[in-house]
Specification:
Shape: elongated
Radius of gyration: 31 Å
Helix content: 55-70%
Length: 166
């Protein structure tokens, strides 16, 4: 069993990140290491809360710990440094901003969260009420149109006129 130094592991895992974005299979062939070993290294890093590349699109399956670590790492960075950081990690600055906002929302007090839920609930009820009203109006119009068609058909039958296909 071969033991790799942490520096070597980091260098190999960096090849999976932007700007290289190499696949695990390509890195394994290039470095003459089994794919399973690289997958295990990546899994251990992910479990430790470090941002690592994965199969899914960027930012989809990041753990809460990894997202928080990214927020903390990027807090003191300027816009250009943030852009460079995002390119290295395969992220977008908008994702990091959204994660930060989600984190801040998580720190809101229960009262303010309940107030936000109440406001959303009230808005939803108002929208539902308006939609129900519109639905009733359309149902009445449809019933009226159906009644007119039936009456026209009966009137034609009464006068013995040939019916045309409507």
């Amino acid at each position: 069993m071969v033991i790799y130094s942490p520096e070597r592991k980091d260098a190999i895992l960096k090849k999976l990140l932007p700007p290289y974005n190499k696949s695990v299979a390509a890195v394994a062939r290039e470095e003459n290491i089994s794919e399973k070993t690289i997958y295990n290294w990546r899994k251990k890093l992910k479990e430790s809360g470090k941002p690592v590349p994965g199969k899914s699109s960027p930012g989809k399956e990041w753990s809460a710990e990894a997202k928080l670590a990214v927020i903390v790492e990027t807090a003191p960075l300027s816009e250009s440094e943030l852009g460079q950081y995002c390119r290295q990690k395969g992220l977008y600055p908008e994702q990091i901003k959204r994660w930060k906002q989600e984190c801040l929302n998580g720190f809101q007090s229960a009262e303010s969260q309940n107030e936000a839920v109440r406001k959303q609930s009230k808005a939803d009820k108002t929208e539902i009420k308006a939609l129900k009203k519109e639905l009733r109006k359309k149902e009445k119009a449809l019933a009226e149109a159906a009644a007119l068609l039936v009456l026209r058909k009966k009137l034609r039958a009464f006068y013995g006129e040939e019916t045309e296909e409507d």
